[in-house]
Amino acid sequence: MSDMTSTTAQAAGGRNLHRFANPGQFLRLSARVLPPVAAIGLVLTLTGLVWGLFFSPSDWQQHDAVRIMYVHVPSAWLASFGYFSLALASASALIWRHPLADLAAVEIGPVGAAFTALCLATGSLWGKPMWGAWWVWDARMTSVLVLFFLYLGHIALVRAFDDPQRGYRAGAILALVGVVNLPIIKYSVEWWNTLHQPASITLTGAPTMAPSMLWPLLLAAIGGMFGFSALVIARLRAAVMERRIRALTMAQIRDVA
User: Per the structure, how many domains does the chain have?
Assistant: First the structure.
């Protein structure tokens, strides 16, 4: 009985996902959602960055170099958030054959790769005055570099086949295998001796950061998440419209022939 209930629930979940996967319905819904999501992301990100870069106090030890944190930390969070979203889209494509999941995964990849590259670049800028080197092969930096290569691998793999479905499936498998790197990034500072300090913000304890530095960081991070979502929605809208135009063009060619 429990197996039947589980199967019924899974089928219902799949039907609900497919209901929102209709391209026309997605375009109508995303047209309403995209402007407020983009506006919220822009306002929160600018507020957090201006507050953090120009009005928050400097650190007693790192001085003004700590202000790189307001770009580096949100980009690091978004790099992992993006890959987790990529894995969810890939799982939806493999399990439920979600019609838009493959396209979503394709469009998430470049956005996530851009934030990962920003994380690596700002980390190097921060590391030079703090550690005396642009790059060190510690566990956190190395695992984020692996994340960047996973993004690049996914971007290349989904475009490497003449049959798009084969590329989508290969990319989805890579994305799911690469998820193992996310806990390594998260817990690398606890599992190994690294130059990175432990996390100042955790789910199980109070933050070790002063509120005057914490609030602009959180605003920039939340704004970045809205901005990430807006970029993916905009790219996915363009991909859906491109696919519909291509289908109409092919239909017209067949009618003429």
Answer: 1
Amino acid at 88: L
All residues at 6 or more sequence positions from 222 whose CB lies less than 8 Å from its CB, including other chains = 44, 48
3-state helix, strand, coil in the chain (%, to 5): 80, 0, 20
Do the domain assignments include residue 22?
no
Does residue 51 lie in a domain region? yes
CB atoms within 10 A of CB 121: 14
Rounded (5°) CA angle 81-84-86:
110
- Helix H or strand E encompassing 225: helix 211-256
pLDDT tens string for the chain (257 positions)?
444 444 444 444 445 445 555 777 888 999 999 999 999 999 999 999 999 999 888 877 777 788 999 999 999 999 999 999 999 999 999 998 887 899 999 999 999 999 999 999 999 998 888 888 888 888 889 999 999 999 999 999 999 998 889 999 999 999 999 999 999 998 888 777 776 766 666 655 566 678 888 999 999 999 999 999 999 999 999 999 888 777 677 777 776 76
Alpha-carbon span 141 to 22, nearest angstrom = 40
In a domain, 48, yes or no: yes
Q: Judge whether 25 lies within some domain.
A: no
Side-chain half-sphere CA neighbours of 242 within 13 A: 8
Q: Which two tokens stand for residue 214?
A: 């914490």
* CB 74 within 8 Å of CB 221: yes
